[in-house]
Write a structure and sequence with these properties.
Layout (H helix, E strand, L loop, with lengths): L1 E2 L2 E2 L6 E6 L5 H13 L11 E2 L6 E7 L7 H12 L11 E5 L5 H17 L4 E7 L11 H17 L2 E8 L10 H10 L2 E12 L2 E11 L8 E6 L4 E4 L2 H10 L6 H14 L3 H11 L4 H14 L3 E3 L2 E3 L1 E4 L6 E4 L1
Parallel strand pairs: 3-8, 3-9, 5-6, 5-7, 7-8
Antiparallel strand pairs: 1-2, 1-4, 9-10, 10-11, 11-12, 13-14, 15-16
Helix pairs in contact: 1-2, 4-5, 8-9
Length: 329
């Protein structure tokens, strides 16, 4: 599978998606699944994902977290709708199961039995989605249990025609690490790692999310991809570059660009020297000069509009060293 024409997911590998709670990890996995479930006459592409090659891939979606009355059925319906089908259809290349009602200490065995059973009557390649993988064992901090499920996946990708895509939570302390000993082992053994996280601040109820390729053993990491949640469809969609820039600025807790651009014209009138401008704005916004330097650099690169005396200007920096100055053009 590719994303925005860049190779991403390869067969017979282990990959995983990590993120904090509420960052739509599962919807990202669903977007990947739609590309394998859809028929050849469906041109829908979600979040830039595209299936490569002609061979069919069957999806086994294993859920451990969502309730089976509405949440998990709704997720499978999103995959079906995203595959250009009606929710009353039964796609040939999609099977799903919930392990929620099975005791944790019995889930790995149940998972193995389910996969073995489905492999008997499923031809071709199989993408197995474990959402979330840490709930497939009793304790994600237990080394033997964690290595047990990792060893099982490694054996399967080498002996069977399967690929694993796991979903896992990050530690709640915000250090961007997949949870527990299992997360550590996944990081070591996986061929591809995707992280989805909130990018910048919230804008009128809209939130931009960044998909970052943290690891790609098969190729160089992909550029970041920015998406947002479409409430009308329940799907993730690619985000416009202007919304990405706005989200980044709104996330600044100190010296937001909108306020810097308001104070900048008066400071330039006093003294346009770069060092003086940095110092004066840092005092105004109670931050360090490096923060101001970064904000002004971004304003120049993005061509940020600065309104003064009824006219629209942009910022320019000229000269080198101590003699460099800012000016509005």
């Amino acid at each position: 599978m590719s994303q925005l024409d860049q190779p991403l997911l390869y067969p017979n590998t282990i990959g995983y998606i990590q993120g904090q709670a509420g960052t739509h990890k599962s919807r990202l996995a669903e977007a990947i699944c739609t590309q394998f479930v859809k028929n050849s006459d469906c041109n829908a592409s979600h979040v830039g994902f595209e299936k490569e090659g002609r061979r069919d891939t069957h999806v086994l979606y294993v859920d451990t977290e969502r309730n089976i009355k509405s949440q998990f059925p709704g997720a499978m319906q999103r995959i079906i709708r995203g595959s250009c089908m009606d929710i009353t259809d039964a796609p040939e290349r999609l099977d799903y199961i919930s392990l929620l009602a099975i005791k944790r200490n019995e889930r790995l065995r149940a998972l193995q039995e389910y996969i073995a059973w489905k492999r008997q009557d499923t031809k071709g390649h199989v993408l197995i989605v474990l959402d979330v993988v840490s709930d497939c064992i009793s304790d994600f901090n237990d080394a033997p249990e964690s290595m047990g499920i990792i060893d099982y996946m490694n054996t399967m990708i080498n002996e069977e025609d399967v690929t694993f895509l796991c979903v896992i939570h990050e530690n709640p302390n915000g250090n961007a690490k997949a949870r527990g000993h299992l997360g550590t082992e996944l990081k070591n053994k996986a061929s591809i790692t995707l992280q989805i996280s909130q990018y910048g601040g919230e804008m009128d109820g809209h939130i931009v999310y960044k998909i970052q390729n943290l690891k790609n053993r098969m190729d160089r990491p992909l550029p970041d991809v920015f998406v947002e949640f479409d409430e009308s469809t329940g799907l993730l969609v690619l985000c416009e570059s202007s919304a990405v820039s706005l989200a980044k600025r709104s996330g600044y807790s100190k010296a937001p660009i909108e306020l810097v651009s308001t104070r900048l014209p008066d400071e330039l009138k006093k003294d346009p020297a770069v060092g003086v401008v940095h110092k004066s704005l840092a005092e105004i916004f109670s931050c360090d000069e490096r923060t101001i330097r970064e904000r002004l650099k971004e304003m120049i690169e993005d061509g940020t509009s600065i309104d003064t005396q009824g006219k629209t200007h942009s910022l320019e920096r000229s000269g080198v060293g101590k003699g460099s100055t800012y000016r509005l053009i």
